[in-house]
Structure formats: structure tokens, C-alpha cells
Design a protein that fits this description.
The complex is a heterodimer of chains A (165) and B (378). With 165 residues, chain A is an alpha+beta fold. Chain A has two domains: 42 residues, no CATH class; 116 residues, Alpha-Beta Plaits (2-Layer Sandwich), CATH 3.30.70.3270. Chain A is built from four helices and nine strands; from the N terminus they run H-E-E-E-H-E-E-H-E-E-H-E-E. A three-stranded antiparallel beta sheet of chain A has the order 4-5-7. The longest helix of chain A has 13 residues. The model of chain A has no long low-confidence stretch (mean pLDDT 83). Chain B has 378 residues and is of the alpha+beta class. Chain B has a domain of 229 residues: Cytochrome-c3 Hydrogenase, chain B, CATH 1.10.645. The longest helix of chain B has 29 residues. The two termini of chain B are 32 Å apart. The chains are: A alpha+beta (165), B alpha+beta (378). Chains A and B meet through helix 1, strand 2, helix 2 and helix 3 of A and helix 2, helix 5, helix 6, helix 7 and helix 8 of B.
Chain lengths: 165, 378
């Protein structure tokens, strides 16, 4: 193959892309859809349930304050601290619950694997940026709130190329 | 040329013709490392790669963490190839802890590992394209990587650092309908990367820049101890997936790609051929995978090894053979953990290859070595 034909073929390959649909997605308006409600773990079988490893969700009625999540995080990120919860929110005897610092969390989900009481799950919420370091620390009360996520964009493969439909 | 006046302090004789040039560590053409090159006009006389700017002490950190909490930090050296960098550790820990892996988990691991290999190579290819000033080759792989990242995200829940492999299997089962989505994405991905031939690999401009530059002969490739794509580009048919099959690689039909030239062009082409082969492996694994079953052997939260033992396991990563040597003294933490990384071994060939080359050929030779600075420094 000559030099000229090679360059023309390369250009031709690029020109073909003008007829292909746009693959990128308009992020803040469109958001990627994820599998399920986030990463969860079933202690009875010892196997997790697939999902995005996003912000945690704490179920106050299940949490016993056993600190296993905090111990699991010790060698990883040290993001989980056990804090005293106010008397009116008290659920367990020790009245301590995890508080997660998302400035440190690496979203590995090992704390979810460690929880034997179905109390700590992960959700599809990944937009956690904050103007201050304190804003990244989520208290047990904040972790109990189920996040609102509107995610509907998925990769679709058509004859005219792939797109985020 | 240099006389040592004190240990570590050498007095260098200055030659008027020779100029010393520091490429990096902030230079975009070097990654997180410095290459000290001595040039005579436009020709490189000597080259001294200086890695170590991103040393994180992964091996020492591993001595203070148990076999489970070691997982998130051990995949940090190569976050794009995080399943493969964790693979030898997980295989070694399984042998030390004495656990069996379910059959389905082995197939899930193979799929995850092959997807990660493609993700890594696409990222590497994007950087190779921009090193050579070919911005289309930066945009296309960066975009097409998204199909596989999306699959890994469905599979493990994270886009880059998956923390998916665990001693005893994988963390979670595949989501519903994953096989169909995986097959569709991989087929489209294969179609897309075949288009790279016309725009990049058969492009006369790329060929003129990379052909016959940095030629590594078969003899030198073996002598210098290179691995992976660098070794296969020099004509040595060596792939650990075939030579020392781990998990279920022996049940799959794998074909290695070997090129005889040993120049920068061959070294850049081999990873691309590997990606096409990875697509075949993923399709085979999806077909042969048991449709249901456990994916993880239940493990105690803080597992203890059976007694003092050592284990060495290696896998074929995106860059070459990646080994993990674990010494255990029967406690919950490893006594010593050593990662034998392919990047560092491929870097050894750099001074050898750059001698006599033009300075302008340095990026094309350097990045064709399939080198990842962070992995070399651990």
C-alpha cells in the first residue's frame, strides 16, 4: 500500500464518523443508569448483590452499634467513626452509629460486607462534592436518608453507532 | 567517565558536545518519572531512567493489613488494570488460607480480568496516540473504553478501582441479564477497535515514525528479562495464560500474537492484537460459564493462614507477567509481600533501546514498552 492511499484511507475512516451518532452524554442533564439500588450484601450467603458503590445508607432500626464496619475500615481508609447519636434517635443499647467521612472513603464496600445485620448498604448516589471538608462528613441522621436519583441514560448500540439513549 | 569522590557523589567530566537533558518528572511526555538523556546533537548517547517519584510503599503497607483489607490498596498501582494487579495476590492468599473457589467465580474472574486488560490497553493506546501527536487516537480509545467500563461498573459497582476479587471468589454475583449486555458490548467494541487499523496501524505516518526505531532483538529481549507485549513483539511466544494457566484459562482456546520485528511498531501493535484476542476469550468464557451457582466461598472476617508458608503466583496482566510473593507466618497479616511488576522489568530495556536513537523518537520508544510508572514504583 502506497503512502498516499494509506493517508486517504486513514482520512476516510475519520470522515465516516461524521455520520455516526454522538456517543457522549450531556452529564448534568442526563445521568447514567445503574444496575439495582446500589451494592448490597447478604450475610447469610456471604455474597454481595451487584450495584453501584456510591454513598452509604444506614438503616437505624437494624444497626446495633457493633462497630464491625468501623473495624473493617481501619486498614482501608479510616473513614468510619462511631459517634453518639442523640437520645431521641437512640436505637441500640450503646447508642453509637457510624459516621462516614467521604473525604477519606474509597468506596470499596468492605464495610457493607462486614455488617452482619443488614444495616449498611450502598446507594446509587455519587454526587457528593462539597465546598468544605465538614460537608463531606455524613452523620448517622444524614446517612439514613434515601437519596433521590434520576438516572435513565444507558448505552445503546444501533446500526448508526453507539449512543447514550 | 565519572569518578566517585564520595559514596553516591560522582564527579562527571563535562564533554562540550554532550548535553544532559532532564525529561520529567513534570513533563507530559514521561509520566511520573524522569528520564535523564545525554544527547549529542539530535542523537541520544546515553539514557538513565529515574523512576521512584510515586513510590507508595504498597509492600510495606501490606504487612499491617489483613488478607481482606489488603485488597483496596493493592489495586492502586494500576487502577485501570485493577483486577489483574490483584489477581496474583488473590490466588496466593487462597493457597495460604486453603480455600476452594467455586467454578462460576473462576469464570467471572476470567471475564473481569480480560475486560480490565482491554480497559488498560485502551488507556495506554490513547496515551500512545497523543505521544505521537495523533489526537484522533487519543479520543477514540478514550471513548470506546466506556463500553467496557460500563460493563465493569455493572459487574462490580465501580468504574475504575473495582475491589472485586477476594480470596475465595468474587465479591458479588453478576447482575441479571449481564451475559447479553456483555456480549453486545464486546461485539461492538471489537468492531470499533478493528477500525483503528485504517486510522492508526496502517497509517503511513505512524509506520514511518515507529518502524525500525528501538529495535529489540529476540536475544536481547530474553537477556534483559522483558515480559508481556515487549517480549512477544520480539518474537518470543510467551504468554502465562498458556504456559502456566491459572483458574480456567486451560479450558479456553487462547491464541497468542507474536511479531518478529521487535521495533516500536510491533510493540504498539501487539497490545491491539491482544485486545482482539481478549474479546474472543470473553465470548468463550460467557459460553462456558455455569449459569448459576455460588461465586464466593464464605470466609471468616479476619482469616488466619494455616501456618508458616510461602507462595508465589503470577498472572499475565495487561503489561506482562505480574507476580506476587507472599510470606506468611501463620498470622492474620502477611509477614512479607513482594510484587514483581512487569513495568519495571520492561523499563530496563529503555537505556538499551534509546542508545543511538534520535531524541524525537524517545516518546514512541518509551511508551511502546508498555510501561506504567506507578506500577513500577509500587
Amino acid at each position: 500500500m502506497g503512502t498516499a492511499t494509506g493517508i486517504i484511507r486513514a482520512l476516510n475512516s475519520g470522515i465516516k464518523h461524521m455520520a455516526i451518532k454522538r456517543f457522549t452524554l450531556r452529564y448534568p442533564e442526563e445521568k447514567l443508569k445503574f444496575v439495582g439500588d446500589g451494592y448490597q450484601f447478604d450475610p447469610s450467603t456471604g455474597v454481595g448483590i451487584a450495584g453501584l458503590k456510591g454513598r452509604h445508607m444506614l438503616f437505624h432500626d437494624h444497626c446495633t452499634g457493633c462497630q464491625l464496619c468501623s473495624i473493617a475500615c481501619e486498614g482501608v481508609a479510616e473513614a468510619i467513626a462511631m459517634v453518639k447519636v442523640p437520645e431521641e434517635q437512640k436505637q441500640n443499647k450503646k447508642s453509637i452509629m457510624p459516621q462516614i467521612d467521604y473525604g477519606k472513603c474509597v468506596f470499596c464496600g468492605l464495610c457493607v460486607d462486614a455488617c452482619p445485620f443488614y444495616a449498611l448498604y450502598m446507594t446509587n448516589d455519587y454526587e457528593l462534592s462539597s465546598f468544605s471538608k465538614e460537608g463531606l462528613i455524613y452523620t448517622p441522621a444524614q446517612l439514613a436518608v434515601k437519596p433521590y436519583v434520576a438516572q435513565d441514560s444507558e448505552i445503546q448500540i444501533t446500526a448508526r453507532g453507539a449512543t447514550h439513549g | 567517565m565519572a569518578t566517585e569522590i564520595m559514596p553516591g557523589l560522582a564527579l562527571q567530566k563535562v564533554d562540550e558536545r554532550i548535553m544532559t537533558l532532564n525529561v520529567g518528572p513534570q513533563h507530559p511526555g514521561s509520566g511520573h518519572m524522569r528520564i535523564v538523556v545525554q544527547i549529542d546533537g539530535d542523537y541520544i548517547v546515553a539514557c538513565d531512567p529515574d523512576p521512584g517519584y510515586v513510590h507508595r510503599g504498597e509492600e510495606k503497607m501490606a504487612e499491617y493489613r489483613n488478607y481482606i483489607t489488603n485488597i483496596p490498596h493493592l489495586e492502586r498501582p494500576v487502577i485501570h488494570d485493577s483486577c489483574n494487579v490483584l489477581y496474583p495476590y488473590v490466588l496466593g492468599a487462597e493457597e495460604l488460607l486453603g480455600i476452594e473457589v467455586p467454578e462460576r467465580a473462576k469464570y467471572v474472574r476470567v471475564i473481569a480480568s480480560e475486560l480490565n486488560r482491554c480497559i488498560y490497553i485502551m488507556y495506554w493506546l490513547a496515551i500512545y496516540g497523543i505521544f505521537l501527536g495523533h489526537s484522533t487516537m487519543f479520543m477514540w480509545p478514550a471513548g470506546d473504553r466506556e463500553f467496557l467500563i460500563d460493563l465493569m461498573e455493572k459487574m462490580s459497582g465501580a468504574r475504575v478501582t473495582h475491589a472485586h476479587f477476594v480470596p475465595g471468589g468474587v465479591r458479588n454475583d453478576l447482575p441479571a441479564n449481564f451475559e447479553d449486555v456483555c456480549l453486545r458490548h464486546v461485539n461492538y467494541f471489537e468492531k470499533r477497535i478493528k477500525e483503528y487499523a485504517a486510522v492508526f496501524y496502517d497509517n503511513p505516518i505512524l509506520i514511518s515514525r515507529t518502524q525500525d526505531t528501538g529495535v529489540l532483538s529476540k536475544h536481547d529481549a530474553i537477556r534483559l528479562g522483558t515480559t508481556g507485549s515487549v517480549l512477544r513483539a520480539s518474537g518470543v511466544d510467551y504468554d502465562l495464560r498458556i504456559k502456566e494457566p491459572y483458574d480456567v484459562y486451560d479450558e479456553l482456546d487462547i491464541h497468542t500474537n507474536v511479531m518478529k520485528e521487535g521495533d516500536a511498531y510491533a510493540r504498539s501493535r501487539i497490545p491491539w492484537l491482544d485486545m482482539l484476542e481478549s474479546c474472543n476469550i470473553i465470548r468463550q468464557a460467557l459460553q462456558k460459564m455455569p449459569k448459576s451457582g455460588s461465586v464466593r466461598t464464605k470466609l471468616k472476617p479476619n482469616p488466619k493462614t494455616k501456618g508458616p508458608a510461602t507462595v508465589y503466583k503470577r498472572v499475565e496482566s495487561g503489561r506482562g507477567s505480574l507476580g506476587c510473593y507472599i510470606v506468611s507466618d501463620g498470622k492474620t497479616e502477611p509477614y512479607r509481600l513482594k510484587l514483581s511488576v512487569p513495568s519495571f522489568r520492561n523499563l530496563i530495556a529503555l537505556p538499551h533501546l534509546l542508545k543511538g536513537e534520535k531524541l524525537g523518537n524517545m516518546p514512541s520508544v518509551y511508551w511502546s514498552l508498555n510501561y506504567w510508572p506507578v506500577e513500577a514504583d509500587r
